[in-house]
Design a protein that fits this description.
162 residues, alpha+beta, Alpha-Beta Plaits, 52% helix
């Protein structure tokens, strides 16, 4: 059980914010490049002051911090096609406000360069993390601890019979 509680306390939470866009025209195209292009990610990182929110293991220049923030964005900002002419721009981050800022900022940057899109479902600041699900970690840790104790007891019992 201590394993589950420890994991629940020390695993970094991940918050998800998403905004859904729809186009009246044909199926969305070129969205990936328009949102996740290098210049767009740099602009988004600057707009949201992301370089100040990323942790660094060593001192870096401002440019180095920005480059690490952009690299983090490459993994944590995603586009998902939905049914019909809709797309979702999704941001995952370790705090809800930043996840919202990233998703909404990516949409604003995208809408500046594209016409014919409108927001179907605006982003909201997430109140609960998507990950970890603490209940699952605690219950899983308790079960793992139980199985380990049964295994150790069985091994000790076998060893004492010899």
């Amino acid at each position: 059980m201590a394993l589950g509680i420890g994991a629940a306390l020390f695993v970094t939470p991940l918050y998800t914010a998403s905004e859904v866009l729809v186009t009246a025209g044909d199926a969305p195209s070129g969205v990936w490049e328009a949102v996740k292009g290098r210049e767009n990610l740099v602009k988004l990182a600057q707009r949201t002051h992301l370089a100040d929110k990323v942790s660094y293991s060593e001192p870096l220049t401002e440019e180095g911090k920005l480059q690490l923030a952009v690299r983090a964005l490459e993994y944590r900002l995603n586009i998902r096609p939905l049914d019909g002419n809709a797309i979702a721009i999704i941001a995952d981050w370790t705090d809800g406000q930043t996840a919202y800022d990233l998703a909404h900022g990516a949409v604003l940057d995208f809408l500046e360069t594209r016409e014919g899109y409108r927001t179907l479902k605006p982003a909201e600041v997430p109140q609960k993390p998507k990950y970890p699900v603490r209940t699952i970690l605690v219950v899983g840790g308790a079960l793992l601890g139980l199985l380990m104790s049964i295994g150790i007891s069985a091994v000790l019992d076998l060893a004492s019979r010899r």
